[in-house]
Hints:
Its main location: cytoplasm. Belongs to the transaldolase family. Type 3B subfamily. Keywords: Cytoplasm, Pentose shunt, Schiff base, Transferase. The active site is at 83 (schiff-base intermediate with substrate). It is found in: Cytoplasm. The chain is α/β, with parallel strands linked by helices. It is globular. It contains 11 helices and 8 strands. Strands 1-2-3-4-5-6-7-8 form an 8-stranded parallel barrel, surrounded by 7 helices. The chain has a single domain (2-215), classed as Aldolase class I (TIM Barrel, Alpha-Beta Barrel). It has helices at residues 10-17, 29-35, 39-50, 63-74, 88-99, 112-120, 130-135, 140-153, 168-177, 186-191, 196-215; strands at 2-6, 24-26, 54-57, 80-85, 104-109, 125-128, 159-162, 181-184. Helices cover 54% and strands 17% of the residues. Erythose-4-phosphate binds at residues 6, 26, 28, 107, 127, 129, 131-132, 163-164, 183.
Amino acid sequence: MELYLDTAEVTEVREVAEWGVLDGVTTNPTLVAKSGRPFETVIREICEIVRGPVSAEVTATDVEGMIREGRHLAGLNEHVVVKLPTTVEGLKACKALSAEGIKVNMTLIFSANQALLAAKAGAAYVSPFLGRIDDISWEGMEVVREIAEIFALHDLPTKVLAASIRHPRHVTEAALAGADVATMPYKVFKQLLVHPLTDIGLKRFLDDWEKAKQQA
Length: 216
Ligand code: E4P
């Protein structure tokens, strides 16, 4: 399973990339706006660090605009994956860009049928937003599971990218549900590693080692 950071903060990408376990990055207009930095500079810098798939989202909502922006974004770096909203216009743009060999991540997916349409339009990735589904008292992980099962049953090559992840348990469950990728905020990525028993265990090993050295 691939693990991505969901961020537009270059310092976060640099830090986690150094761990050697970061496969890619997703961004969205909200995250880029929050970074306060120019969109294209951020995308270029992230691509240079991660050297894996980096999703950059269009802001046009009409098909011509999406295709124009998508081609431009794809030209920024070979690692750019163009993110498109799952609308009728988005599907048309996905079909056109995918036919040109540009990788597309269809975003804002909240149902298995939306994912099925995106896959048929040639998307390389579909992004079910599981946290936002949970927010409306539905079962986000169930949508991820359904999509993964449908793609496996019908041999669809589109990858399931579990998005809108809110806590480490979401990552475990997305992996079990068959997601190919989980994208998460920096805070959650760091939480994946933390376990109090690891810290307690390490402290005990080192304390015992010191005691043994003093007795020798
Ligand atoms: C994914 O590509 C999105 O950027 C992201 O996961 C949205 O997460 P949120 O619902 O926490 O904003």
